[in-house]
Structures are given as C-alpha cells and as structure tokens.
Q: What sequence folds into this?
C-alpha cells in the first residue's frame, strides 16, 4: 500500500460506522442496509415516488432489520428534521415519536437555510427530551 495514495487508517476502533441509505419498502435496498451499521431511511410510495418518512415507517424498518440482520454489532437509525426556534417542550414533542419508533440519531437538517438561521440553531444547543 502506497501511503501517498491512501490516508492513514482511522483511529476509531474497530472502525468508523457505515450508515446505509435504505429505501422502504424496497427489499433490495433494505437487504443492503443489513450489512451496515446504521440506516438513513428513505421511503417510496407504490408509484415509485419519494414520500416523507414517518415514525410508523421507522418502526416497520426497525422490525425488518431486527428480524433479518445477522450481525450483533450496534445499529443506528438516523432521522433528520428541523427544530429551529422551538422550545424544549416543542422539541421533545417532535423527537419523542421518532425515539419511540427506534431512531437513535437526530440530524438537524439545515439545508437551504441562511447562515443566520444555522447560527441561531447552534446557539439553541442540542434538542432535549426531558
């Protein structure tokens, strides 16, 4: 291995987790997820169009993963959304259904917003459930 072309190995051991996009209910896509360390959920309706992922979808995806994944290593389910400007109570109300469905990570989606909004959200601190 020529170090000129390869970065050093990661410090994190055993390795960095690999989160895989899974399209529900597309089984070919979901079978790929079983080989990874986490799920980035997406959903398609019966017409093949993108549809919003809901906590009920996460519950179904988690049930599929739990019953089909042969690995016993930790597994994350990552959901995203926005909580900018919400009170702690509003954030908890928004996030709790996702947690109850099996989500383990929340990514604050700040796509297409201005720098001021991103800074404002950062200053709010992380969402709290209680």
A:
């Amino acid at each position: 291995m020529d170090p000129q072309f390869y970065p050093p190995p990661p410090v994190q051991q055993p390795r960095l987790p690999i989160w895989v996009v899974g399209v529900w209910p597309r089984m070919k896509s979901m079978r790929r997820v079983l080989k990874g360390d986490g799920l980035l959920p997406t959903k398609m309706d019966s017409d093949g169009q993108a549809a919003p992922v809901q906590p009920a979808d996460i519950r179904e995806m988690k049930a599929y993963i739990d019953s089909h994944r042969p690995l016993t290593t930790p597994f994350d389910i990552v959901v995203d959304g926005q909580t900018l400007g919400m009170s702690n109570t509003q954030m908890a109300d928004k996030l709790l259904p996702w947690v109850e469905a099996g989500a383990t990570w929340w990514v604050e989606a700040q796509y297409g917003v201005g720098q001021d909004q991103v800074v404002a959200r950062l200053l709010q601190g992380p969402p709290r459930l209680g």
